[in-house]
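User: Please fill in residues for this 187-position structure.
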């Protein structure tokens, strides 16, 4: 057998409804912030990839210049001596090292741009999708239902009771009299 609700404070229900609405808003704000952070991570990776591609082009130009400088020093001078090429060889090694680093960074950015969606899906999207469903679909319905229940309770609380008139106390004395007995039937 169902028992009635034991509502002691309609105001407490209103306060709880407001708190639930605030909680829902907070969750939605956090989810929006997380979505923005994820988008920022993708944007940053894309920007880094572009930056390193530009660096690769610059480094290729440096390598070409260093090779040309080294090649021009490999010819004998007017005295028939080979000039020292140590500086040019060092510059070429450094330019090649910078080029290699830039190419590695391009590859890393490309790799992370491929990995990041899967990592986000595995660790973030599934959980937040369920929470988002609760916050965006389930909670509004539950809150509307609670609002309806509060309205019903408010209208119930406003009802004025229609009681039957109180029994007459004319036949009762102040404390120890018995109520009048009904008339006896005649045989």
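Assistant: Residues filled in for all 187 positions:
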């Amino acid at each position: 057998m169902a028992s009635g609700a034991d509502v002691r404070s309609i105001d407490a229900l209103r306060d709880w409804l407001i708190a639930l609405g605030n909680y829902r808003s907070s969750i939605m704000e956090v989810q929006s912030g997380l979505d923005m952070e994820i988008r920022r991570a993708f944007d940053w990776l894309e920007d880094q990839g572009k930056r390193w591609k530009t660096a690769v082009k610059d480094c290729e130009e440096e390598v070409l210049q260093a090779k040309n400088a080294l090649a021009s020093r490999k010819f004998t001078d007017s005295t028939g001596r080979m000039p020292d090429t140590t500086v040019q060889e060092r510059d070429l090694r450094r330019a090649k090292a910078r080029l290699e680093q830039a190419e590695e960074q391009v590859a890393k950015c490309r790799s992370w741009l491929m990995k990041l969606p899967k990592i986000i899906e595995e660790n973030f999207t599934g959980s937040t999708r369920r929470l988002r469903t609760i916050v965006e679909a389930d909670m509004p319905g539950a809150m509307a239902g609670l609002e309806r229940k509060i309205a019903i309770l408010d209208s119930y609380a406003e009802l004025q009771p229609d009681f039957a008139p109180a029994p007459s106390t004319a036949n009762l004395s102040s404390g120890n009299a018995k109520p009048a007995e009904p008339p006896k039937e005649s045989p």
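For context: The chain is about 75% helix and 0% strand.
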